[in-house]
Amino acid sequence: MTTETLPSTITSGSAVRAPVRVALYTALGAAALVTVLPFVWVLSGSLRTTADIQSDPGVWLPSSVTFDNFVRLFSISGFTGYLVNSIVVAAIVVVGNIIAASAAGYALAKLDFPGKKLAFGAVMASVMVPFAAVFVPQFVVIVNLHLSDTLLGIALPSLVFPISIFIIRQYASVIPDEVIEAARIDGAGELHIFFRIFLPLAGPAVATVTIMSFLYAWNNLIWPLVVAQSSSTYTLPVGLAATSQAAAHVTDYGLVLAGAVVVMLPVLILFLFLQRYFVQGIAATGIR
Amino acid sequence: MTAGPLVASLGASRSRRRPRRLASHQTASAWLLLAPFVVIFLLFTAIPIVASLGISLTDLQGADLRTPFNVDFTGLKNYVDLFKSAQFVGSIGNTFYFVLVGVPVTMIIGFLLAVVLNNAVRRARPVFRAIFYAPVVANVVSVALIWQYAFNDAGTVNTALKAIGIPGPDWLGDTHLAMPVVIALGVWRNFGTAMLLFLAGLQGVPQDVHEAAAIDGAGWWRRLFSITVPLLMPTILLVSVLLSVFYLQVFDEPYLLTKGGPLNSTESMSLYTYQQFGFGNFGTSSAASFILLLIVALVSVIQFRLLRPRA
Predict the structure, then answer these.
(1) Membrane-spanning residues where (chain B) (predicted)?
(2) For a Cys staple, A52 with which of A29, A38, A48, A285, CB 3.0–4.6 Å?
(3) Chain B residues lying within 8 Å of A31, measured CB to CB
């Protein structure tokens, strides 16, 4: 890392003088404030009564804290169901990616077979296809599989992200071929090698795949919107959008903001603790 | 999804040769391991692309899904109708508005933050990096709520403006002001991605060039534009194309903030496609999405052309 050498380039020639430094940190601080303000607002709003928010919407910190919004959210609004649906969809997507995408990544990186270029081309092609261009026929497929308005229908197209395959394939080059050759000479089958030798060694890449696919499954809006026909299959983002637009709740800011916290918090907490995997994921692929 | 990994893989796609006898043993296992991907690829990428083109040449309606024989082949009628529709043509314009304003603004903010964090901040860098990246992982539905409260007629922004004596407009209800607010949400969500990619790119800018230029008396701005920017050109190009492809598909921001209004002034191509789908006009919807696919493909081809020499 070049981190340690950076300050010297600044000090050589033209040092970052104290006034400049103060100005830079002020600008960075202001930018950081603008960035976090919406988060603060969601959190503080969720802890205020609706009457309190309506009387003065601009306040950043609650004058008195109440958890009433969360209690109402889970008791009356169907959010418990949305939360369960989101967890189920995310679980299917994450497990699918860990196993199926890793298997494909391993095969593409470490095995030699006819059609390999074709398979790799398919991975590349599916990265490039914009979602908006295929969701109508995707929905037709889902209907024909009798999976419309089901959680499996929401999860199925995300089961093997091409991005996940790329991450695993890229990481596989770090794992020495000798380890795998040795297992082969000992007579281990390819499936055994994949599950017992490759997967444990690919830990960091698997972690990145887990995070990325969870993030996508948890935050995705448009596909669940297409597949879910009834509120019993709504995931959290769909449920929150519906709740906030429903006439009964449209002025119930407290309730809606509590919903926003429930949607946002799990990902932000994961991000806080597993930041480096998020960063690696984006550095490896250039996408989110 | 965008085409980022393609670039990374251009140089690495050649596999190492193995002895033939091993290869034959591995074939069955390899396709077994690839089977889940192949099934999902066929069902949700390959077939849909072909089907999308097919459906776009018919008058398929949502109600016809269980009775496919009611569907008529209508040739290019959907495409002709689309280009006669002011709403669809407007959605192309709005999409390009979003891209042409959103991409440069996102990049400039991401670039400036990356340069400042890289050059002038050391200990606090991880903290700032985490803060600026947080919007990328935040759920857009939650954030859009705040955007709505902030920009509605009596919202926070107008309250603040009133305090300094300026009467605030109805941001999301004004055909000229709604799109800038929609773009602002897009920028807020994505500048962290640009920053992160630029930070990674800056790691590759050699420091000795900087030092030599500094000794020769080049100031900070001079070095930024004469050394950093030219050396960072591959990253700048990459980020611009990634963001362009991503922004061309913009859906969440206008869907959540304005539903495409007022008077379709924020209706994007993806949103138009989704709405036609919602009306049950699958043929029209597929034709619109196929035009979007062509535009995205065109941008991707340009990306390949521009990036190949360096890869």
Answers:
(1) 30-55, 96-118, 130-150, 177-202, 223-248, 287-307
(2) A48
(3) 113, 132
Q: How many domains does chain A have?
A: 2
The correct CATH number of B86-307 out of 1.10.730.10, 1.10.3720.10, 2.120.10.80, 1.10.3210.10 is: 1.10.3720.10
ipTM metric: 0.84
Query: Which residues in chain A have Cβ-Cβ distances shorter than 8 Å to B298?
Result: none
Contacts of B16 in chain A (CB under 8 A): 177
Q: Residue A37: give the domain boundaries.
A: 5-46
Domain boundaries, chain B: 86-307
Contact list in B for residue A115 (CB cut-off 8 A) is 31
Query: In the beta sheet, which residues pair with residue B61?
Result: B281
The answer to whether residue A6 neighbours chain B at the CB level (below 8 Å) is yes
On average, the pLDDT of chain A sits at 84
CA distance B99 to chain A (A): 15
Asked whether the beta carbons of residue B30 and residue A116 sit closer than 8 angstroms, the reply is: yes
**What CATH number is associated with residue A254?**
1.10.3720.10
Interchain pair B282, A136: CB under 8 A: yes
Query: Residue B240 burial by CB count (10 A; 0-12/13-18/19+): exposed, middle or buried?
Result: middle
Q: Over chain B (311 residues), what is each successive 10-residue block's mean pLDDT?
A: 39 44 70 93 91 87 70 87 94 96 96 89 86 91 87 82 86 92 95 91 80 80 83 85 90 92 92 92 91 87 66 41
Q: What is the pLDDT of residues A55-114, one digit of tens each?
A: 766 666 777 788 888 988 888 778 899 999 999 999 999 999 999 999 999 999 988 888
